[in-house]
Amino acid sequence: MTHHTVFVTGGTGFLGSYVAAELVEAGHDVVAYDLSTDEGILAKLGVADEVTVRRGDVTDPTDVVRSIRETGATRVVHLAALLTNAAREDPRGALTVNVLGTNNVLEAARTLDDQVQRVAWASSSAVYAPPDNYDGDVDEETLLGPDTLYGATKEYNEHQARVYAQDYGLSLVALRPTVAYGPYRETGGSAFLANIVEKPALGEPFAVEYGDQVIDWHHAHDIAQAFRKAAFVPDASLGQRVYNVGGVTATVREAAETVRSILPDADLTVSDEGDLPWTQTLDTTAARRDLGYEAEYDLETGFRQYINTLRKEHGLELV
Prior knowledge:
This protein folds into two domains: 5-179 and 218-244, NAD(P)-binding Rossmann-like Domain (Rossmann fold); 181-216 and 248-276 and 296-313, UDP-galactose 4-epimerase, domain 1 (Alpha-Beta Complex), CATH 3.90.25.10. Helix content is 41%, strand content 16%. It has helices spanning 14-25, 40-44, 61-71, 84-89, 91-111, 149-168, 191-201, 220-232, 252-262, 285-291, 299-313; strands at 5-9, 29-34, 51-55, 75-78, 118-122, 172-176, 179-181, 206-208, 214-219, 242-244, 248-251, 268-270. The longest helix has 21 residues, at 91-111. It is globular and about 60 Å long.
């Protein structure tokens, strides 16, 4: 395997740290480019000493180009974004970070096209319309219709990436992950899903709605694996430029039952109140075919690992 330097924007965040760890494990040099130089998650994943953290702002076009050039990176994984709730609170900031930030990364790849061989970047399943618009699994050709600003920025980025690929010959691969879960998640619109695992893990009660709603539970390690593959799969293998990637589909109630199977004393209350805006299940056939992507974590494995990580940190007995 050829050794590469991979430049990860948002590289000290939740998913960025998992992606960095995945790439280090695969034998690559990693530069984590982020406004935050907090190495906390990288340290908890055991790779802080092996990742170069470079403070930078994805909204500064000059800094993005300079940083990629100076690090000699041949692959870029672009994750930096304001997520759903942050985008709702700061819509202009979300447009600046998500849309202009992505444009700055694409421009850097265009400017440094003799150096940068591939940009793998994060779109999102949030580009799809609310679930009542679909019947059955949703593939990449299905009509898009985001109803959040976050989803709209990701849809726009898919358009600009298509143009950069067509007009400038860039090698770009986008992934549309679903609901990320795993230890050290900090933000996002699905914090209540983390609490299904985190509260019982520490012996705390938790009540959750949406019991009958289907979620695609996507472990952070599996998302990281998908981005590593998207960054390195040969161009000849790519049948498209945007891929759905997912984990395991299960209702919120089934997830709660999985937690109870690991922690029989869990004080979890589940009701069927409410509707979630993003319960569609994605067809991941293309990612399996072209990227060789397969989710490795089922719910039991993922939840047990998550629970034990938290219990270990709090000095509790492992289960």
